[in-house]
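Journal club prep, notes for RB
We'll compare a predicted complex against what the paper describes. Inputs for the 2-acetamido-2-deoxy-beta-D-glucopyranose case:
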Amino acid sequence: MHSYVAALVLLAGYSAAAPATTPQLPDFNLIYDAPTPSLLGPPPVGGDQTSVFDVASALASATADVTTVASASSTGTAVLNGKRGASTDTASYGAPTSSSSIYTTPSLSSSSPVSTPTASTSSSISGYSATMVAPPTATTCKAEPAGYGPRNLSVTEFQHNVLFTLDALLAPTPRGYVNTFRNVNASVEANSYLGYYNLKSYDTNLCAQHCDNTTLCTSFDIYVERDPSVNPTADICPNPDAITNYKCALWGSSIDKAAAINYGQYRIDFHVVIAASNGYEKTNSTTPASCPGWKPPTNCGGAISASGWHLGSNFFPGPFDPAICAAYAEAQTSYNHAHADSSGKYSPANMFNAYMMKKNGIAQGTFCALFTTILDKSFGSFTGSWVGSDFFGVETSWTYALAVQDSGIVKR
Ligand SMILES: *[C@@H]1O[C@H](CO)[C@@H](O)[C@H](O)[C@H]1NC(C)=O
Ligand SMILES: *[C@@H]1O[C@H](CO)[C@@H](O)[C@H](O)[C@H]1NC(C)=O
Ligand SMILES: *[C@@H]1O[C@H](CO)[C@@H](O)[C@H](O)[C@H]1NC(C)=O
Ligand SMILES: *[C@@H]1O[C@H](CO)[C@@H](O)[C@H](O)[C@H]1NC(C)=O
């Protein structure tokens, strides 16, 4: 169903100093066809949520995906003749698709700081008196983690709350971060979600600390959310009293206003709404971690475009994590080595290029391209292109060279 992709692609952003090989586009079908992670942002409850991204399974899948021999110039990736287009850096994206309710099951199982049930257990009576109601609320209207903000605000009061607006407008930008959007009524929703912390106040510096202390985190979205005090159920508590949560959501990519697309949702009759959403990032000033066996990463601007040495690509939805590309590269080299030709030759992955692919300004995941040789920054010419009505953009493009280059000849 994606065969239209190559035909509709318009190439943009090529540098004049084009490499000596045919310019090459990423295979966008890898992104269209990739599964969506189960969590795209914090659920509409309090509490904390950590370790959302399963590194081990991402690494395992990168290895397991390698099931065929790859050789340079034979991977079937879309290749176009270099046609220079207008710069798309300032292109305005189309309206983001409104996928508002991302969570159908808002029950957060773990780490709920609240254990007090809401039932009015007044005294130590042995057995219920006739006038006491059996406690349905204790079992049905399950308490949600308590929020630290004002309680009982109506939707309108929440949306026009001056204190929230001031929180957003006056919040300091933490050292090392850049503020990317302010006072938006939606939170970020994207594949690069890493978890969230429920804060006691609108504290950007504390949220930045959480990001700094979280592997792969390079940005955060802080906002206030009107959440229900108990878990809404259709029969007994369809529209409970409101509480306010100060949420600090962590992301493994940059976050722009384009990704603030979660405007809340209904939980039964309770209207979850969001206010004072601010985005902060240190993505551009963060060097990704080194990968064992590979030289430290080199920033290469755009994605490497060099079809002659291209050994294959793969895409992994989630936060930006070059370690996945390293696992993929190593698996491909081992596979090729094990299936060397009769003269003992095989194509080694001597370099990989890892970057975050964004679609219409929203982070999608780590794109990995393998190359048989080390290519420098001058090959990093691909910065983005349109595919139909979608704009694909490249951010944080880094190359890793194999520390001990592989000759591609089986030693006998
Ligand atoms: C969010 O704000 C925009 C204007 O900035 C407004 O059009 C929209 O109705 C608001 N949505 C919600 C859910 O508050
Ligand atoms: C982050 O890590 C530092 C150093 O380990 C620690 O002092 C600080 O309390 C941590 N901050 C948070 C919010 O966990
Ligand atoms: C909302 O206000 C009512 C009436 O004052 C009070 O009984 C209730 O506890 C409040 N709810 C919350 C979540 O604070
Ligand atoms: C990060 O770098 C990219 C590419 O140079 C640029 O377009 C973007 O505006 C930068 N982001 C920030 C927050 O400075």
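Talking point for the session: Residues 206, 209-210, 213 surround 2-acetamido-2-deoxy-beta-D-glucopyranose (ligand 2) (CB under 6 Å).
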